[in-house]
Amino acid sequence: MAEQFDVVVIGAGPAGYHAAIRAAQLGMKVACIDAALGKDGKPALGGTCLRVGCIPSKALLDSSRQFHNLQHIFGEHGITASNPKIDVEKMVGRKDAIVKQFTGGIAQLFKANKVTPYYGFATLHADRLVKVKQHDGSEVELTGTNVIIAAGSDSIELPFAKFDGEAIVDNVGALDFTEVPKRLAVIGAGVIGLELGSVWKRLGAEVVILEALPDFLAAADAEVSKVAAREFRKQGLDIRLGAKVSKAEVTGKGKKKEVQVTFADKKGEETITVDKLLVAVGRKAASKGLLAEGSGVKLTERGQIEVDEHCHTGVDGVWAVGDCVRGPMLAHKGFEEGIAVAELIAGLPGHVNFDTIPWVIYTEPELAWVGKTEQQLKEEGIPYRSGSFPFAANGRAVAMVEPAGFVKVLAHAETDRVLGMHLVGANVSELVHEGVLTMEFKGSADDLARICHAHPSLSEAIHDAAMAVDKRAIHKAN
């Protein structure tokens, strides 16, 4: 007989574990199901983000940044070191230890909040019945007054570049190279491609990034993309735009494996030979095998679960959140959706403002933005004013030897309400939240300009950019 719960959550990634813990906090009996296993073969909660995405990639980004700065930046501070080396095995081991710490942390949070975990593959049937095929082959059945689907997403595999886990990899494989590849090709100049490409470039690999689209980071503000592309190329990343890959052939065996990658751009067709190929062309909803016939839940043309603005599927008591539904595939978007749905189930207000979700790319320099770009405002016919300020004129950034980039504030031309903030530079992943807060509270550029910012700090660039909207910036010519 199926065990009854108030809420059954399918998936313990960012959206799922937030939903489960918040529902439990609100007094509900909660179960959460997850199929993932860690490197040690034991259950590992946290989803793609924690196990093989956000957290481990930041660990490697920080390790590689330290090594790069030791070689190229520390000299300007008067610090020298002879013949520095990187121990890749130790670096990856550190990353794995961080992952294990945090997956174990979620298990402890489940225990503290009395969330019952189940480990295996879940399938939703009619009447909110969830069957779980556990790793030992046994099956358990759960029923929920409410079911929250938070199944996450998987890497998109190209038909001509199948993952083999060795020569052709996705983000999982690129986090676990045992040595620095001499030559690395990356298909896709998105977040994953740029971040992991940067990791291995800093450690000594020759990296070529092949992007099919003609524009670099088209989703970002055009000025931000231009500055970022310039800085990445200065670092030695070989970014080829309009490069459409047609073939990836693995040759050799063992450590002598190579990949011959054929692509075409405006110069014609070319074949390059690399040691590793990272395919980073995006992700797709992990909906395969998730829904039994008769569940009533519908999928969109893209394979995502169909939901309304409140994350409800249209089937009584069935909700879906995170990467498996519409909207950006961002962990923090999943966090907020999971909490919102738990609160809606409890009869409380629950809402996610998609207009103020921040975007970040953790390269060097970092890119971050929230709200509308200038391109979008022009296309939508919205009158606006713009103010920007370069980090090269910011005392803290120059003292850090990280003067690249700028901050841009976009405000409505008539109301002065902030419509967007776009940043490229050091630590802008932390600074963008000034824009998020201002927009959430419907603040104006003048509000930002009149708020005292500590000196010297990187955040002063936001202050100056806001003042520049009204052409009254102090530290730059207006």
Describe the 3D structure.
With 478 residues, the chain is an alpha/beta fold. The protein has 3 domains: 3-155 and 284-352, FAD/NAD(P)-binding domain; 168-281, FAD/NAD(P)-binding domain (3-Layer(bba) Sandwich); 356-469, 2-Layer Sandwich (Enolase-like, domain 1), CATH 3.30.390.30. Helices cover 30% and strands 26% of the residues. The strands form 5 sheets. It has a 5-stranded mixed barrel with strand order 1-2-3-4-5. The chain has a 5-stranded parallel beta sheet with strand order 7-14-8-9-10. It has a 5-stranded antiparallel beta sheet with strand order 17-18-21-20-19, with helices on both faces.
CATH homology superfamily name of the largest domain: FAD/NAD(P)-binding domain
Strand order of the largest sheet: 1-2-3-4-5
From the 3D coordinates, which CATH architecture of the largest domain would you assign?
3-Layer(bba) Sandwich
| Biggest sheet architecture | 5 strands, mixed, barrel
For the record, the count of structural domains works out to 3
State the low-pLDDT regions, or none: none
Task: Please give the CATH class of the largest domain.
Answer: Alpha Beta
The geometry reads as globular
CATH topology of the largest domain: FAD/NAD(P)-binding domain
Domain Pyridine nucleotide-disulphide oxidoreductase dimerisation: 357-465
EC number: 1.8.1.4
GO biological process, one term: 2-oxoglutarate metabolic process
Cofactor: FAD
